[in-house]
Amino acid sequence: MTYEEMYKKAEQSKELQNLTPVFKEFRKKGERIVGKLVSYIDTDSSAGEGTYKQYLFETDEGLVKFALGAATDKEIVPLMNFGKIYAIEFLETIKISGGRNVNKFKVQQITPDDNKVGGENDRLPF
After folding, report:
1. What confidence score (pLDDT) does residue 45 get?
2. How far does Cα 117 stand from its chain's mean position?
3. How high is the pLDDT of residue 112?
4. Domains located in the chain, CATH noted
5. What is the pLDDT of residue 126?
6. Other residues' Cβ atoms within 10 Å of the Cβ of residue 30
7. Do residues 40 and 56 touch, judged by C-beta distance below 8 A?
8. Stated pTM of the model
């Protein structure tokens, strides 16, 4: 089978995985991304003030990349792990000194039911 034939077969059977992420920019309060953390990379700021991270999440809609800002990066990156599921919600933009803005987010880790401590089976005597 040729590569082109393999492609056509995968396309027909819906076995293609799109690796091109969609970029998401948070604009309105309450906008949210829920998915698995795949990776993040350092990106140079266009304002010339250091770097920030671009995150890549696997979501129900496919791969999504987005930025949260350097301030949020410093708070959450030490707590996040690749392969874990997170919900990230945009809260607001706050004006700070020097005419700059900082975006605020609520970041939550989702623990799937099969990883939770306790549950119905804990009531069994053995």
Report:
1. 85
2. 25
3. 77
4. 22-112 (2.40.50.140)
5. 46
6. 8
7. yes
8. 0.79
The secondary element (H helix, E strand) that includes residue 12 is helix 3-12
For 99, the token pair is 């005419």
- CA distance linking residue 24 with residue 34, whole number of Å: 12
Only one residue has tokens 């987010």, namely 105
DSSP per-residue letters across 23-92: E----STT-EEEEEEEEEEEEE-TTSS-EEEEEEEEETTEEEEEE--HHHHHHHGGG--TT-EEEEEEEE
Q: What is the pLDDT of residue 117?
A: 52
Q: pLDDT value at position 118? A: 52
Q: What distance in Å separates the CA atoms of residue 81 and residue 85, rounded to the nearest whole number?
A: 9
Tell me the average confidence (pLDDT) per consecutive run of 10 residues in the chain, 126 residues long. 96 91 96 97 83 96 95 94 97 88 94 60 48
CB 93 within 8 A of CB 100: no
CA dihedral 79, 81, 86, 91 (to 10 degrees): 40
